[in-house]
Amino acid sequence: MALNADMVQKDEDTHNGMLNSSFEKKVRPFLDLIDKLRAMGVEQDVALPTIAVIGDQSSGKSSVLESLSGVQLPRGNGIMTRCPLALKLKKCDSNWKCKIKYQTADGSFDEDIKAPSDVGEAVLEAQKMLAGHQKGISQDLITLEVESSSTPDLTLIDLPGIARVAVEGQPLDIEKKIKELIMSYIEQEKTIILVTIPCNVDIATTEALSMARQCDPQGERTLGVLTKPDLMDRGTENSAIRVLNNQSISLKKGYIMVKCRSQWDIEGSITLEDAIKAERSFFEMHSVFKYIEGKCTTQVLANRLTTELVGQIKHLLPCLRQEVNRKFYETTEELNKFEYGAPTDNKSQIIFLNGLIMKYSANVQSLALGECHRNFKENMMMYAKARCCFAKWFEIVKDQEKSWNADLHDTVKRFMTQNTGRELPGFINYQVFENLAQQHITMLEGPALDILKEVAGDIGGIEGKTV
C-alpha cells in the first residue's frame, strides 16, 4: 500500500511539473515583454502593468517578498525599504543568479550578487547611495533580477512601509513623503495593489488598505495578504476567516493568508526552504485554517500573483499598443520639425547633435546679449526679463536702506560700546563694521534668493523655447 501511495504521489508530482512547465511557457513571454519595455524607459511615457506591494510598517511585507523571491531582503526595526525596489523573478533550470541595478548621478550601477545571503547587504548599500546614510527615502528605483528554479515568474515593486512618526535621522514629514511615493505607483490604473495586513490587528485600521481603497474604491485591482496568523490570540480566528471569505472589507481579488519567517526564525537560522515547509505544516495542522481551501500558503499567493499580472497584461495589451503607437507618432512628429529629421547612423548622429548644440548655444547667446531675431517668439528676451526682476530687487534694497538708516546711528553706537577693545581712541574696531555688514546681508539674503529663483525660472523657460 505504501508503495502504491508513493507511486501515486510520484505521478501527481510529474503531472504538476508538466502543468507548471506549460504554464511557465505561456506566461514568460508576457512578463518579458513588460520588462523589456520598462528597461527601454517606456514607463516614463506609458504606464505599464505591474504589482505594487504596500503595507504598514512591520506588517510582514519584507517576509512575504522573501518567501516569494527566495532571497533575504533588509529587515529590522523602522523603515528598511527606503527606495522603490523592482523584484524581477524568473524561473529557470540553471543555477541561482542575481543582479542589482540602479542609477546614480555618477552613472549606472550593475553588479552580480554571488549568494542569496548577500542580497540584503547589496540592497542596503544601494539605498545608501540613492537615499543617503540617514533614514530618509528616495524615489529612485533599484532593480533586483533573480533567476532560480524555485522562484515564480513574477515582477513586483516593493515600496516603503508606512511610518507614522519620524524617528532620529528622518525628516519630520516622513509619513507624507512615503504616502506620496506610494500614491505615485498605486494610483496608476494599470497597477495591481498587493496590501499586506497582519492578522493580529483590526483590518479597518490599516493605513495601507485605506490608501488602496482611495485609489481603488471598488477593490477591483487590490489583493489582500494576511500575515502573521501565528500571532493571533486563540479564539479570534473567526475574524480572519471573515476577512478571507470577503465578509469584512470586500476586495474583488480577495485575500490570501501566509505564514512567513519571523525575526525569531531568522535568528534561529531557519532557512527559507524550512520556513516554506513549516508554513505548509502550520496550515495543515491548524484547527481552523486547515478547512480553508486554496486561500493559504505562499505557493498559492505566488501562483495567484503570476496569474493576476499576466491577466492584467493580456487585458491591457491592445490599449498598451495604442499608447505606444500614439507616443511613437508624437515623437516622430517632433523629430520631423527638424530640417532633415534625425539620421540613423552613428557618425551622422554625432554631426547632427553637434549642429543642434551649436545652434542652441548661438540662440541663447543672442538672447543673453539682447539681440533681436525675427525667429524668436514674443517674451523671449532674457535682458528684458532679468531687468524686471532687478527692478524689484532695487526697490527691496531701497526699502531696506530706509529702515536700516533710521536707527543706524544708535546701532553703531551700541556695537562700538559692546566691542571696544585696546585700539586707540577714534579708531573703530573692524568687528563693528563686520557685524553690521553681516546683519545687513542676512536681512537681504531671503529676498535675494527669491529674486535669484525668479530669474533662473524665467531664463530656464526662455532656454526651453529655443530648442
From TrEMBL:
Organism in which the protein naturally occurs: Eptatretus burgeri (Inshore hagfish)
Organism domain of life: Eukaryota
Alphabetical keyword list: GTP-binding, Nucleotide-binding
Source taxonomy: Eukaryota, Metazoa, Chordata, Craniata, Vertebrata
Annotated Dynamin-type G domain residues: 45-318
InterPro entries hit by this protein: Dynamin, Dynamin_GTPase, Dynamin_N, Dynamin_stalk, G_DYNAMIN_dom, P-loop_NTPase
Gene3D superfamilies in alphabetical order: Dynamin, middle domain (1.20.120.1240), P-loop containing nucleotide triphosphate hydrolases (3.40.50.300)
Transmembrane segments: none
Keyword Transmembrane: no
GO molecular function (one): microtubule binding
PANTHER family reported for this sequence: DYNAMIN (PTHR11566), INTERFERON-INDUCED GTP-BINDING PROTEIN MX (PTHR11566:SF231)
Alphabetized Pfam families for the sequence: Dynamin_M, Dynamin_N
A GO CC annotation given for this chain: plasma membrane
One GO term (biological process): synaptic vesicle budding from presynaptic endocytic zone membrane
Name this protein carries in UniProt: Dynamin-type G domain-containing protein
